[in-house]
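Troubleshooting log. The previous run stalled partway through. Resubmitting the same two chains, unchanged.
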Amino acid sequence: MKTLRLEFADTMSEVGQCDPRLVVMVGDISHGILQGFAKACPGRYYNIGICEPTIVNMAAGLNKVGLVPVVHTIAPFITERAYEQIKLDFGYQHLSGNIVSVGGSFDYAQLGCSHHCYTDVSLLCHLKRATVTIPGSPVEFNTLFKKLYATDGIHYYRLPERPHGIEFAASDLVPGRGIRLREGSDLTIATIAPQLSNALAAAERLAASGLSAELLYFPMVKPFDQELLRASLGKTKRLLVVEELSAHDGLLNLCLRAAIGLPGFSVRHLALQDFLHGYGTHEELSERAGFSPQGIAKSAHDLCSSP
Amino acid sequence: MLSDRDLALKSLQYRLQTLELIHSAGAGHTGGGLSCLDILNVLYNRILRVSPETFGDAARDRYVQSKGHAVEALYVVLADRGFFPFSDLETVCHYESDYVGHPTRKIPGIEQNTGALGHGLPICVGMALAARMDRTGSRVFTLLGDGEIAEGSNWEAAMAGAHYKLSNLTAIVDCNTLQISGHTSQVMNSEPLDEKFRAFGWGVRVVDGHDLAALTEALSGPAEADKPTAVIARTIKGRGVSFMENVAKWHHGVPSDAELAQARTEIAAAIAALKGGAL
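Second attempt completed without errors. Output:
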């Protein structure tokens, strides 16, 4: 199967020749394979070099005057290092653009932990107006990029080094929708790229040993297909999540992990769903977010009155 | 102290060992390793007051390799200086080996994990400031790439180093003029680096980064009063192997068996020439 990085280059050429607003900016990565785009779309390809925060700043500036930027380099440097630029210059300024990374998780294993990145997906999910796509095959990137790239939002695409090898039709791929690859009744396995192939193989192995696993695959995690997950969990009551992402994603994650194995439990969550826009004192903003005695009590009542 | 001739021989031996290491590991940063090897040679054999025995001393000199991707060259020099046996390097890039493709403090002799560019100089500003506060007499050296210098954090650190008058801090820039995708001047031109560092308040020395005597003088001379020192080392990426010199693809190219054999032949000839044909 073609690599995601090559598909990225081909998709840029395809889209760039149809949309004169598309501009690609890279941080000294994938320069060779993007020469097709550079030739097909003269004046719209920039290798800015090794200065990721500035690349994001510049991309925001391009969008400010009407262009559609695509920023591309290695995941830890374009997300963790340049996060303030993404958060403020795209998020707070309400600008739109596309961030395409390679080297997420431990794809660059031989280069050591400075080149690992487990938090990019989480970081981008914190941002209002962000979409987060983890395409595991060429058609996923090509289809979802074309549907998202020019829409309002901060669109993050994490390209795994190795595609999962499973073929999907373009019609299977809808922004914000997951895919049920296998029906089951004993447990739900939820996964993202590139671990789909391992999860599928595991489901087949489980079937041979008498366990019926339902397999859900999420090419996008924001927006997240809650309906698909809830329908499956309602049936199986058991969830196994397989993801190449940090397990330390917040208190809810910690609580849920701590509760693994307990009999049926209910959960509520008081946390910051999005940035708190607007001025006010800390107390005022706290109350708006539900962090007040009455807000906490309301959540507690909701929790205790739920079936 | 090693003679100039012995030091030159070491440079050639280090080159061969670096190439053999990268060939054996099947991965590594060849061009940038060869461009900075003479700098590392001079640092570890003539300048740095550090050894395996004194690595725990508070007063030791510190070296941080900010261009961490050239780690194979550093591994070779550290092994030669006795920080660990050469046999350790057989595991470079192997599963669960601590010898990965960037420096980590798990390796004896390495002060600081690097890999993400633009971190070495700022952390060295902190280390130099602490050494001055503690009055240890420790000096701090860091090695940057000229592609890396595009990271804005370097210039914030340059400002801070001058502001705090850190005359115990030396930043060496390995100016090999190439980065992964081509000429640095075409990707993001950072020249004239000497004028830029001077404008930030640094003492500046521009040297041939393969001239061991000039490097020794630049790195051992007293700092200008109350100023950190920038040594702009003009180097050649892939230095010492004819088909690797000034070719961007050798940034992280791995030599084949035939290419390693050719490199061995060239380096052996250089060693023989240096020894007056005694080999």
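Takeaways: The radius of gyration of chain A is 21 Å. The first helix of chain A runs from residue 4 to 18.
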